[in-house]
Amino acid sequence: MSRGSVVAAAAAVVALSAAPAPARAQDLAVDTTGAAALIDQALNRSEVMRNLEYLTDVIGPRLTGSPAARRANEWTLERFTAYGLNGHLEPWTFGGTWTRGSMCPRTSTARGVRSVRTL
Asked: What is the pLDDT of residue 104?
């Protein structure tokens, strides 16, 4: 072992064995008036469920580039404006647009009995 390695190891031992300084207690004053206002807003005046219901039940699936996605973007901008926020829609091209057609999922059970349903 070289002299430099011994000195480095000794320095590491001294550094690790030094007693840490005790932590000082902190005075934490908590102002709960702001928290109470947020909780009141969330529980009594929230529009989250109403907005989610409109997006999912009225506008429906929003595949990228679809008319429903455009309508959702426009509706969201209207909501932001109603909340007093500034916003605008950014134009962008995606390529082809998408519409959802019919679907035919097939599932198999553990016993090999097939179940087919068309949606």
From this structure: 75
